[in-house]
């Protein structure tokens, strides 16, 4: 006897439409493997007159969340809106009505990670969000497995497709940031307001989720140092290429001397390194566990179908109660420190505004320098007056 | 109330000892996340007087499988022996007694894949074997998820740590095959009789498991073309390095024109490609799905703890009934063809024994040639008389 599971999709942008498409197109296969039918009962939208990339039954559209909330035939809420607080309120209300949640909304999940996970666990409901980190790559589910028998000491990744696309194009075509951003916007790889991507905020949110799950201890958005890519110029790419390096925006969180350190920043990796080979809008996550060693996961970090594939998989996992609920460790309260993050850096700044005389540095060009074994925060403060300056970490030999 | 799950370990080599170690060392963490205690009740060995790398309670050792079979407190059998038919018999007997199975035994699983999976499904038991393919890398579990909503069109990987170690050392140190093999044996990376590794048989078994799961149709050992690495010489590495290529042993199965093609062979990949960056005893698997796109998984392909980590995770998944049982597709019977595998190849042979005059070829050195767009089987037959000859596929631009 087949089971029918009712779902509602909140928000019908790219990801929502992708979920609709996969559930329809792969209906027979999903039914064959799960013996269940995923029945899309409602789709919450703001505007009824929009055109969509998939053909849908317009009777499913509603702008009334209450209608979804009060429909007992809706078992699972697929939250793929672009709101933050409103999305969280809807997820909380839905869980209070006994509905399981799948979400791809990294902003809301990052901000309300503990509240949402706690509520799900307390009510014995699922709150799954594989698509929120690294799009189509299955990484949160394996991570949820690994923490049971590994001490994870580091998670690191190229987590934002827009930034990686821009940096790849700047590197390969020698163009300046502004031109590439414009192209990215025309191609739909970057939004009209690209700030949450290019300023590193999106990467930071994903690192917050990844590191909290990996270290089984709350690593908050405020615990993570942040530097974006919008100040990177063609000359920086060129200067670093001469040192055989390629710039990537990397989110990196690790345990060192029993302290947790986390930072999102542009890193000049070796041009023959693994991360340099992650190009275009692709993402990659590496995880280090004391039993399993190093694992790397690679795939599409964004895009309609890869992201929707992750969402659909979460729906199926809920049908079968197949994933662990997120649960932080007991008694883990390692210090989380920003001040102690050190490294070797490439810096470019206007020497008419700024003096770095107190730093031991090596001149590369009139405007750019290499600085060895320096505290990141100190350097950041010294460059504060020059809003066009940039700090890029140099990958060390043992990175 | 905590649950106690009894297990027995069959075989106590590297992997078995690793499982013992993880279950003991990570006892508290596993208990915290699962609320279950994994209780090792028995360990099946041939010889009672062996020294082990882990300290164990010697009372657990037995050489009597019946004792394990008839112990109702043993719920899960962890089969990590090096036998084939005997291992299969034990797994069948255990399933007939209602016990779930975890195995890392790729030889037995490859040979009896359908029989073991069918028996497990018919009896509503688990038969999990993540550790049998690519050691510590979680790949079979994500693959089991992906097939529900993806048509997988290709699986490909560096699947044997011994071969990859040997080829890496030959490439980096310019040494000949025999010297490196000797070193690998001294370091414990290769067995005294290395034939199943270096002849590609181990890779073939893993590809048989991977491709059958990916294509949801039986791809048998006999369906896969096979060429090993034992004929590769330092001169081949050098000749191909001049063409900016690195040799890797790759298992590759794909769907083309609605036909399935599968081959294990040395491939000269571009030296700046992803597969070239997979060095030492590491493994990598790439999977292509029509929804998710390309995914790559990377990690330790062998070793006590990574492999045992995969086994332990399977045990935990059984506790919670968390993985799909393997089930092939319905009505899928695409033709599996060996004859149609074509490509560009590097060949080295003794021209005093062999003539390749009928092949359009380009001379590289006195003994080695490049041949374009040629049928692999035809070339193989032509070289048959020269037992020292080697065929290496040239990765094409769009590989």
TrEMBL record, chains A, B:
InterPro entries: Asp/hSer_DH_NAD-bd, HDH, HDH_cat, HDH_CS, NAD(P)-bd_dom_sf
UniProt entry tagged with the keyword NADP: yes
Pathway of action: Amino-acid biosynthesis; L-threonine biosynthesis; L-threonine from L-aspartate: step 3/5; Amino-acid biosynthesis; L-methionine biosynthesis via de novo pathway; L-homoserine from L-aspartate: step 3/3
Catalytic activity: L-homoserine + NADP(+) = L-aspartate 4-semialdehyde + NADPH + H(+)
Entry keyword annotation includes Nucleotidyltransferase: no
Ranges where the Homoserine dehydrogenase catalytic domain occurs: 138-316
EC nos: 1.1.1.3
Domain of life: Bacteria
Similarity section: Belongs to the homoserine dehydrogenase family.
Name of the protein: Homoserine dehydrogenase
């Amino acid at each position: 006897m087949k089971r029918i599971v009712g779902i509602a999709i909140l928000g019908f942008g790219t990801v929502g439409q992708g979920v609709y498409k996969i559930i329809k197109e792969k209906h027979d296969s999903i039914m064959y493997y799960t013996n269940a039918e995923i029945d899309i009962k409602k789709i919450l939208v703001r505007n009824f007159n929009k055109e969509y990339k998939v053909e849908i039954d317009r009777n499913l559209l509603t702008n009334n969340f209450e209608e979804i909330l009060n429909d007992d035939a809706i078992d699972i809420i697929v939250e793929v809106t672009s709101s933050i607080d409103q999305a969280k309120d809807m997820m909380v209300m839905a869980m209070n009505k006994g509905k399981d949640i799948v979400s791809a909304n990294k902003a809301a999940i990052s901000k309300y990670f503990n509240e949402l996970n706690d509520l799900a666990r307390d009510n014995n409901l699922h709150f799954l969000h594989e698509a929120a980190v690294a799009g189509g790559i299955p990484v949160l589910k394996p991570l949820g497995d690994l923490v049971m028998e590994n001490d994870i000491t580091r998670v690191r990744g190229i987590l934002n497709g827009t930034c990686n696309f821009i940096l790849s194009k700047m590197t390969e075509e020698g163009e300046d940031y502004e031109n590439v951003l414009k192209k990215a916007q025309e191609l739909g790889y970057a939004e009209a307001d690209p700030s949450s991507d290019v300023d590193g905020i999106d990467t930071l949110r994903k690192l917050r989720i990844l590191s909290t799950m990996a270290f089984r201890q709350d690593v908050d958005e405020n615990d993570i140092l942040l530097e974006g890519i919008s100040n990177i110029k063609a000359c920086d790419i060129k200067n670093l290429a001469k040192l055989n390096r390629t710039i990537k925006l990397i989110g990196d969180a690790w345990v060192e001397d029993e302290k947790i350190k986390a930072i999102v920043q542009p890193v000049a990796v070796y041009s023959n390194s693994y991360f340099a080979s992650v190009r275009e809008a692709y993402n990659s996550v590496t995880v280090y566990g004391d039993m399993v060693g190093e694992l790397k996961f690679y795939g599409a970090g964004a895009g309609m179908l890869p992201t929707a594939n992750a969402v659909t998989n979460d729906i199926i996992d809920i049908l079968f109660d197949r994933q662990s609920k997120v649960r932080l460790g007991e008694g883990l309260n390692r210090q989380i420190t920003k001040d102690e993050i050190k490294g070797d850096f490439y810096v470019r700044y206007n020497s008419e505004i700024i003096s770095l005389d107190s730093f031991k540095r090596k001149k590369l060009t009139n405007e750019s320098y290499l600085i060895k074994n320096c505290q990141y925060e100190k350097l950041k403060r010294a460059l504060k007056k020059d809003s066009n300056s940039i700090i890029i970490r140099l990958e060390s030999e043992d990175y």
